[in-house]
Write a structure and sequence with these properties.
This protein is mainly α. Helix content is 73%, strand content 0%.
């Protein structure tokens, strides 16, 4: 029988997430990962594969815990128009609450993704589509109920909200100013048109 691992995979992934999130994929070395996790490079390779495989594992784990959880929770708790508002306001709070100014790991990965790494580009693109589809779903349902202006093209609005969200997350890395970040939410909400009954 082989020896049992002397480390927790979840703990190692938590450490790897912190490094990749703060430094980015390119600037994080295998040596950084093994040193911070307190394991040998050989043990790390056996458990997680190479650096790129580990990064993709960490990114998918991060997205499941943050983006996917947030969309599912907010849609379950709010009607469509209020779901958009709640999502944007929560993202503003998250952005301002990031004391290390790490930004969003998805957005950071989008900036690093190059044509040489088509798999990473597609993963990031698919997650961006997931956000856009969330907005579109809420917009269409809100228009059907009369809570959102029916004269506005929902696909255009969904893409505009996606762009506002991405801009918010980038700005939070370099200008984490309350007035700036929260100031993006109000104009976005006015794009919805009809005032919510709540």
């Amino acid at each position: 029988m082989g020896r049992h691992k002397q480390f927790s995979e979840d703990d190692v992934l938590d450490i790897a997430e912190g490094l990749f999130w703060a430094k980015g994929y390119g600037a994080t070395s295998t040596r950084d990962l093994s040193r911070e996790a307190g394991i040998t490079a050989t043990s790390m390779y056996h458990a997680f594969g190479d650096k790129r495989t580990m990064f993709l594992t960490v990114l998918n784990r991060y997205l499941a815990r943050t983006l996917h959880e947030r969309i599912t929770r907010i849609e379950a708790r709010h009607p469509p128009r209020e779901a958009i508002v709640a999502f944007l306001k929560e993202m503003a709070r998250v952005s301002l609450g990031d004391a290390e100014h790490r930004g969003c790991m998805l957005v950071n990965s989008a900036i690093e993704a190059t044509a040489e790494d088509a798999d990473l580009q597609e993963l990031v693109a698919e997650e961006m589509r997931l956000i856009e589809t969330f907005f579109l779903r809420c917009l269409q349902a809100g228009q059907a109920s009369g809570a959102i202006d029916r004269t506005k093209e929902p696909k255009d609005l969904a893409r505009a909200f996606l762009a506002i969200l991405m801009g918010m997350r980038v700005l939070a890395r370099v200008r984490p100013e309350k007035g700036l970040i929260e100031g993006l939410v109000g104009p976005a909400i006015t794009m919805l048109g009809t005032t919510s009954p709540n």
